[in-house]
Design brief:
This protein has 218 residues and is an alpha+beta fold. The chain contains seven helices and six strands; from the N terminus they run ααββααααββαββ. α5 packs across α6.
Length: 218
Amino acid sequence: KGLDALAAPEFAIALGLAVGTSRRRMPFQARATDSSLMFDFKNAAASDGSPSLPTQRDLWLVGLGLVILCALGAADLWIRMTLKDTRLKELRSALQAQYGQHFSGTASPGEELDLAKATMAATKKILEQFEGDRSAVLPALAELVGLLPKGLPLKIGAILVEHSTLQLEADTDSFDSVERIRQSLAASKKFKNVAMNDVRVGTSANQVRFRASLEIAP
């Protein structure tokens, strides 16, 4: 019988069943010869359709990625700001150099503002001294002006005020006039430790320069 037995219909059915049982199918799989779907309820029941939750390792990787992104953003911002500041300084230096070449002997651009700020700071410091010691300084200045001898040649160069100390720089006509001024200041109860320092002859005739130092009495 040989090949005739293999060609029998029963053998073909048995062979098809054997091949079909050894092939594993997915829960939903299209047939090879048909476009329709074949439902495998046996395998579908064994599978779990719920979505898988993220593990601790996945969350750690996401957090690490966010940290890296933030660090890169901060580094990029710092680099941009540093480059802009360096560029600004270079442009300012180049502008000042060119201005100095064409207009020598004058203040460079930007220096006027710095000078104005320094002058305002010095003025503010002087005003704060007067404001802080107004109760003692202003009456002391009025007393000083009233104590200077009347009719005596006197040219005041500067009056320096530092807390409770007054310094008077002035010119008069003789050493006797300097002594009279000292005695007048020492006689006042507003001042103490009156001293005449750096008394010397001036550059012109009948000119004596001196610096009076005195403390305001409390």
